[in-house]
Amino acid sequence: MKALVKTEPGFGNLEVLDREIPSPNADEVKIKVHYAGICGTDVHTYEGHYKVNFPVTLGHEFSGEVVETGANVTDFKIGDRVTSETTYYICGECEYCQSGDYNLCNHRKGLGTQQNGGFTQYLVARAASVHRIPDNVSYKAASMTEPLACAHHAVSKIEIQPDDVVVVMGPGPIGLLVAQVVKSKGAEVVITGLDNDQTRLDKATELKLDHVVNIQNTDLKDYVNSITNGYGANVVLECSGAVPAAKQGLDILRKKGQYVQVGIFKDPEISFDLEKIIQKEIRVVGTRSQKPADWEPSLQLLSSGDVNAEALVTNELDITQWEEGYNHIKGGEGIKVLLRPID
């Protein structure tokens, strides 16, 4: 079968190769991939900024159907429409595994990074990580369950009350999903972006988010104060990974506000305004990936229509067209690109 494989470290080194069709072990299922989404992590891996096991088939956001089950698998049958968590292996013994926080296990191995992922025809996943797709959710939408689970995980880190004013900084795929999850909780959502985010800001308007703000045209602090009687936002979720956005996010929060760092910074050490955190008694929390408890709620958000993931798809390509997909995303006009396997 054909697979899109990261062969070596450094920029590029992503090739379509012939790989052996995998067979499931006793506790695994074999999935025929229908769609696999390009994630920011895949882009960083292509550019040489993210470490994976070489060689490895990339792709950890996917949907498909079960075509074979291992001897011990009883919860799934051939033909089931499924998606899967990225977790392929955990130690199962540490306190994080025992509490279901697999995303924090030091020994965790993930699909598309340490284990072959979804940019191909078939993959194997551990049955414990697999989830059925609701009947009314398309394969396209379901292929974005993983980033939606990341968004759900981020929002679960803080308490959001109905009518809270919540600012989501960065209108990329994660930001647009986070904003929809927040809105499903009854909060008033402000999503921000720049001039080069216009396509994404237009999508935010299409999704009927409450306030769509280009911060190069509008003073964000004045805008937030105008809708909060001068108090500031209840919550900020920073999804861009841009240092200026993080600083601005702390500035627009009200006293006793909540701040969630979702985006990953290019450099891990940045200047951070601890004075604001102290003086305003701000609660600051980080969020990493997703965990099992985020998946079924995410699938229900897709099924209920509270989250429209399919609306974020701006291009569908074959795995041989990686360069086109990469340029579509990097050029700013793309939001989410889905890749299809080839025979």
Describe the protein's architecture and organization:
It is built from eleven helices and 18 strands. It has 343 residues and is of the alpha/beta class. The strands form four sheets. Strands 3, 5, 6, 9, 10, 17 and 18 form a seven-stranded mixed beta sheet that branches. Strand 1 and strand 2 form a beta hairpin. The longest helix has 12 residues. The model has no long low-confidence stretch (mean pLDDT 96). Belongs to the zinc-containing alcohol dehydrogenase family. This is Zinc-binding dehydrogenase. Keywords: Metal-binding, Oxidoreductase, Zinc. InterPro entries: ADH-like_C, ADH-like_N, ADH_Zn_CS, ER, GroES-like_sf, NAD(P)-bd_dom_sf, Zn_alcohol_dh.
Largest sheet, if any? 7 strands, mixed
Instruction: Determine Rg (CA atoms, Å).
Output: 20 Å
Q: Uncertain spans, ≥5 residues at pLDDT below 50?
A: none
Strands, total number: 18
Helix-strand category: alpha/beta
The backbone outline, from C-alpha atoms, is: globular
- Please tally the helical runs, counting DSSP H or I stretches of 4 or more residues: 11
Strand content: 25-35%
Q: Helical content, roughly?
A: 25-40%
Question: What is the CA–CA distance across the termini?
Answer: 7 Å
Mean pLDDT: 96
* Helix-strand string: EEEHEEEEHEEEHHEHEHEHEHEHEHEHE
Keywords: Metal-binding, Oxidoreductase, Zinc
Protein name: Zinc-binding dehydrogenase
GO molecular function: oxidoreductase activity; zinc ion binding
Family: Belongs to the zinc-containing alcohol dehydrogenase family.
